[in-house]
Amino acid sequence: MAVELAQPSVGWPYRVEGWLAELLFGGFRLLSIDRASALGGAIARTIGPRLGVSKRARLNLKRALPELTDTDIAAAIRGMWDNLGRVVAEYPHLRQVQAFGAESRVEIIGVEHIDRSIAAGRQFILVAGHLGNWEVAPLSAGQYGLKVAFVYRAANNPLIERMMSAMRAEWAEFTPKGPIASRRVVGALREGMHLGMLVDQKMNDGIAVPFFGRNAMTAPAVARLALRYDLDVIPVRSERLEGAYFRLTVHPPIPHPKSGDRDADTLALMTAVNQTLENWIRDRPDQWFWLHRRWPN
After folding, report:
1. How much of the chain exceeds pLDDT 70, in percent?
2. Taking a C-beta distance cutoff of 8 angstroms, is the pair 202, 293 a contact?
3. How far apart are CA 106 and CA 97, in angstroms?
4. Which regions of 56-116 does DSSP assign to beta strands (E)?
5. Residues 236, 131: Cα–Cα separation, whole Å
6. Whose CA is closest to 122, among 249, 246, 231?
7. Residue range 107-158, pLDDT digits in tens
8. Of 75, 103, 205, 269, which has the highest C-beta tally within 10 A?
9. For position 2, what pLDDT does the model report?
10. pLDDT tens digits, residue range 26-54?
11. Is the alpha carbon torsion for 77, 80, 82, 88 positive or negative?
């Protein structure tokens, strides 16, 4: 289930982008998921490293992981583009991806941490980042029977956003960030649902939290909600294995700081979240979206 916004008038640049995206998604839809993923990866890793935006990825990698050689950085950028191309190509096939059963494409580790929270009668926030195919976590949560409201950043182009929303497997509720999300999050918790958030994007009005040794403006919503409503914060790592096969690793809940100072506890909890993400990215730098403007210049 997706929470839709009223569609604004769309100018010609967005219309052209929308037509191109519709053509691209339509072409990938004609292929099997494995062939579409392979083709999307090949196109992106061939073209992407030559684009000017890759300079930002190169700079981010040099600053975050100074131990990497130029060869390592080039490989990480190719891998990043390959993964991004595969994610795009896999969108038309999300409804076919099985997380459980004989035809599963998802290896799941650590689901007992979710089971323990449920058995204890606790609600939780699943926290993840733009690693692997980040759509696999909502899909798997829904197929596991969890009722989760995922908050996400909508695409800038409303036509593309509408396409992507239609292609998402209807295993979870998706609410775009903004005033609607703030209200819906509270409503979802009152209904006994859980929450899910990608927490690795820059937020200009966020708080400064260490990330790879430098402060990065970080949305504090996870910590504030967890502390206010006493929610478990459960990290879920998404990895791409071979082709269109994936691994989800569910980690134990991050302990709540209990200093009594709400601002200090918020910072401490978000620091722990960022450290978890950093560990995942260090392990597989080729699968993170290094194109984010994650740090100040």
Report:
1. 97
2. yes
3. 8
4. 106-109
5. 10
6. 231
7. 999 999 999 999 999 999 999 999 999 999 999 999 999 999 999 888 889 9
8. 269
9. 46
10. 999 999 999 999 999 999 999 999 999 99
11. negative
In the block, residue with structure tokens 């991806």 = 97
Structure tokens at 232: 């478990």
* Residue position matching structure tokens 């071979």: 242
Residue 203 φ/ψ, nearest 5 degrees: -130, 110
Six token digits for residue 101: 């059963």
Return the domain boundaries, the chain: 12-287
Amino acid 9: pLDDT: 66
Residue 103 backbone phi and psi in degrees, to 5: -100, 25
How many residues are recorded in the chain? 297
| 9 residue type, one letter | S
Q: Do residues 82 and 40 lie in contact, with contact meaning Cβ atoms separated by under 8 Å?
A: no
**CA 36: distance to chain centroid?**
21
Q: Is the pTM of this model over 0.85?
A: yes
CA 15/CA 20 separation, integer angstroms: 9
How is residue 112 written in tokens?
A: 């007992």
